[in-house]
Design a protein that fits this description.
2 domains, binds zinc ion, 12 strands, binds 5'-O-[(R)-(carboxyoxy)(hydroxy)phosphoryl]adenosine, alpha/beta, 362 residues, Nucleotidyltransferase, domain 5, 5-stranded mixed sheet
Length: 362
């Protein structure tokens, strides 16, 4: 195989249209030559969630421009690429298909290998792109659509140790914000309120801590918050600013504690000592959650690693990188692949229940 690989990555599985160019020389650190992301928050705002048809149309309209921008910023042409990698699932199928069709077209036009990438593999392999860590490591994926613990052992080696049985934590933050009249996305708004709140005033449940293993649940927490809010309203006719801060702080403390305790359980379940605990997903931006996870890693005497936020959330550099990892590992390109709305990384693990606001959970 060539000593240098330069891949174009394409991502369109949810509400971000993204393209990126990543280059790796054998023995050198990978370089992210460009990473373009066109978000769609404004298009979906009025609907309170991602509307699949609107997302698919927006991807179809924007993909060409985003790919052109990625190549231009990288300072290369299609002729400089060694392969094209594209998200083939899981996600909203209309968007996935838009990306897959463009990738197929580019690969066919230039006779380039086409690599189908699982979106979750992109997230899970990111710490190797940004920090060069070695396998095996424990990855906690915590976003608006996903929550799972993965033991990452290779380019195609993922063991799911546990995951949420209902909502993802980001979803719970977003719903909490909605219940308290705070703006979306809810995570940053709830975190900002919690700064001046008392995390001990409301003792919210720590769901599933009594159950063995590292599965998680967040929908009960949201219900508990709703009850606490309604009790205040019944008692005083409304909630004060301080009530809201305290509710946010109590909710955030519960999420952070549950994630930390379950991380310790996942480390036990791994059955080996991982090189690091790594996180990905928007919720990893939360300071209290990070501190709790950092402590869990410190107790296990392993480093804690959070890639820069732009590579923690949806992007195409992670897709290009997952493509490079697959080619380097000798996994064959996959010209005949089928786009999949549901595509668990660990096919042997039992299916997770529920469906997130961004489509079926993998
Ligand atoms: O990774 P991401 O961009 O992927 C998805 O779109 O799923 O994550 C977005 C999620 C949202 O639910 C958002 O509320 C949450 O991450 N989030 C946060 C914070 N920043 C973003 N949750 C808690 N605290 C934050 N600071
Ligand atoms: Zn994602």
């Amino acid at each position: 195989m060539d000593r240098t690989l330069t891949l174009l990555g394409i991502e369109s599985s949810c509400d971000d249209t993204a393209a990126a160019v990543v280059r790796e020389r054998v023995g050198g650190r990978p370089e992210i030559l460009s990473s373009e992301v066109a978000g769609q928050t404004a298009l979906h705002e009025a609907f309170g969630g991602v509307v699949p048809e609107i997302a698919a149309r927006a991807h179809a309209e924007r993909l060409d421009g985003v790919v052109e921008a990625a190549l231009q910023r990288a300072g290369i042409g299609l002729g400089d690429l060694d392969a094209v990698a594209v998200t083939a699932g899981p996600g909203l199928i209309g968007g996935v298909l838009s990306g897959v069709m463009l990738a197929r077209g580019l690969a066919a036009a230039r006779a380039l290998p086409l690599v189908a990438v699982n979106h979750l593999a992109g997230h899970a392999l990111t710490p190797r792109l940004t920090d060069g860590i070695d396998f095996p490591y424990l990855m906690l994926l915590v976003s608006g659509g996903h929550c799972q613990f993965l033991l990452v052992t290779g380019a195609d080696g993922f063991r799911r140790l546990g995951g949420t049985i209902d909502d993802a934590p980001g979803e719970a933050f977003d719903k909490t914000a909605k219940l308290l009249g705070l703006p979306q996305p809810g995570g940053p708004a709830v975190e900002a309120e919690a700064v001046r709140g008392d995390p001990l005033r409301f003792r919210f449940p720590r769901p599933l801590l009594d159950r063995e293993g590292c599965d998680l649940s967040f929908s009960g927490l949201k219900t508990a918050l709703l009850r606490a809010r309604d009790a205040l309203v019944a008692e005083k006719g409304g909630i004060t600013l301080q009530d809201r801060r305290d509710l946010c702080a109590g909710f955030q403390a519960a999420v952070a504690e549950v994630l930390a305790v379950k991380t310790a359980r996942a480390l036990d379940l791994a059955g080996l000592r991982p090189t690091a605990l790594a996180v990905a997903g928007g919720v990893a931006a939360n300071g209290v959650v990070r501190t709790a996870l950092k402590s869990a890693a410190a107790r296990a005497c392993i480093p804690f690693l959070a890639p820069p936020l732009q590579f923690c959330t949806d992007n195409a550099a992670m897709i290009a990188w997952a493509g490079i990892e697959r080619l380097r590992a000798g996994l064959p390109p996959s010209p005949e692949f089928v786009a999949r709305p549901r595509w668990p990384l660990d096919e042997a693990a039992p299916a997770l229940l529920g469906s997130g606001r961004k489509g079926a959970k993998a």
